[in-house]
Specification:
WH2 domain-containing protein; two-stranded antiparallel sheet; mainly alpha; elongated
Length: 394
């Protein structure tokens, strides 16, 4: 019995040891399996990280290569643009130098032609002045010869007239003549008058000198051909700009060289027809009292009629409008009392106090200085008009 119990105990102990050993072996296998799985997972993660790092490195290299390529292209484009700009500047500088040279040559040629034209005009003017002086001198000589001939003819006619008068008279009174003095003559005989003196010989006619005609004026020199410069509208406006007569909206705009025409006449500021009559102008001399009416009127009197010569609106043209007679205004049935009272007050004449209005009034009957107005005489009016219309000091 005891032996069976011991066997059973030994069996249970062995079984427990085997179970414990199997448990330990299972734990070791589980640990080994977990370690193997962890190692595989770590290796997989490491490989994934390596792949991601490799992929990122390749992408960075691609980006860097693309950036390098773009930088190289940009640098090449900048170099090409700089080269094109230098070529354009060189071309523009050469064109500007060529234009300046052409302008200088054109200006020099124009100045030379202008100087030649001025010299020719000066020579022509000098020649014309000399010809005019010679012509005037010849005309004066001809006029003098003509005057001498005319005086000789008149003297001969007067002497002939006096001789005829002496022949025709039968009186003993000697006739005084304007002839040169002669020895005292005896009283004329009634039978036969003395013979007339022989007429003076007429001067020989002076041949008319031929007037030298001035040389024909040479034709005007042709204007120098202007060199048209090509305008690059792509560039901004540089240099001095000339503002012309054209407007863009309300602002003046610069004009192109082709629009700058110096020979174009400018419009005159004086209108073609006067908008008002010309001011009156009176010559010196005495003026009749009736020509200068006294513009004095009393309250309640009819104003004087201004003559047409003193009316400043007499020469104005009448404004355009209907020339027909306006239709008659229909009469009102009743009378407005306020209007009637106002009209009656305006028509009424009230005497004014001289004491109150003597130093303050500026009405037409009295002057501002308090002196009674009087009519000026023609001499006083003429003196006032010449010296100026100033107030006389007391």
């Amino acid at each position: 019995m005891r032996r069976d119990l011991e066997r059973e105990r030994e069996f249970k102990r062995r079984e427990a040891a085997e179970n414990e050993e199997a448990l330990r072996r299972g734990e070791r296998e589980l640990l080994e399996k977990n370690r193997r799985l962890a190692d595989e997972k770590w290796r997989a993660e490491k490989e994934a990280e390596e792949q991601a790092r490799e992929r990122s490195r390749r992408e960075q290299e691609k980006k860097k290569a693309a950036e390098e390529k773009r930088r190289a292209e940009r640098e090449a484009e900048e170099r090409a643009r700089e080269r094109s700009r230098r070529e354009h500047e060189k071309k523009m500088a050469a064109e500007e130098a060529r234009t300046r040279e052409v302008e200088r040559q054109s200006k020099a040629e124009y100045e030379r032609q202008l100087q030649e034209r001025l010299d020719q005009d000066m020579q022509i003017m000098i020649q014309k002045s000399l010809d005019e002086a010679a012509r005037k001198k010849k005309e004066e000589e001809e006029e003098m010869q003509r005057a001498l001939r005319e005086s000789a003819r008149l003297e001969h006619m007067e002497r002939k007239y006096q001789e005829d008068a002496i022949r025709s008279t039968r009186t003993d009174v000697p006739i005084r003549t304007a002839a040169p003095p002669s020895p005292p003559a005896t009283p004329p005989m009634k039978s036969m008058p003395p013979p007339p003196p022989p007429p003076p010989p007429a001067p020989a006619p002076v041949p008319k000198p031929a007037v030298a005609k001035p040389a024909p004026r040479p034709p005007p020199a042709p204007k120098p051909a202007t060199v048209s410069r090509e305008t690059n509208y792509a560039l901004p406006p540089v240099g001095e700009q000339k503002i012309g007569r054209f407007k863009l909206g309300g602002r003046s705009v610069p004009i192109h060289e082709s629009q700058d025409i110096p020979d174009t006449p400018t419009t005159s500021g004086i209108p073609m027809s006067p908008s008002s009559p010309a001011p009156f102008a009176r010559l010196g001399g005495a003026i009749a009292p009736s020509d200068m009416p006294i513009m004095r009127e009393l309250k309640g009197q009819v104003p004087p009629v201004v003559p047409a010569a003193m009316d400043s609106k007499a020469g104005l043209r009448k404004t355009g409008g209907p020339r027909k007679v306006p239709p008659p205004v229909p009469e009102r049935m009743g009378v407005d009392p306020k209007l009637a009272a106002l009209l009656a007050k305006q028509r009424a004449w009230e005497p004014e106090d001289d004491d109150e209005m003597g130093a303050k009034t500026v009405t037409p009957p009295e002057s501002p200085s308090g002196i009674q107005a009087r009519r000026l005489s023609p001499v006083e009016f003429d003196i006032k008009r010449k010296s100026g219309w100033k107030k006389e000091e007391e």
